[in-house]
Amino acid sequence: MKNIKVLGTGCSNCRSTIHLIEEIAAEKGEQISLEKVEDIRQIMTCGIMATPGVVIDGAVVHVGGVPARSKVEGWF
To answer: What is the mean pLDDT of residues 51-64?
Structure first.
């Protein structure tokens, strides 16, 4: 199971990123633990300066804007 965090303040790009991750995980039959992090201090400790950011199993894999569908598919 992948531990995924979406870091952002709740903007539409953050919500779109969450939806895209959930959709692709479901399509691929992947079990994920998805957490939304909105606390700006926590976001900054990950080195994220543009949102949304995506962290998978402790590694930052995306920063700024909604990731391309193909990029998210590559995470699975």
So the answer is: 96
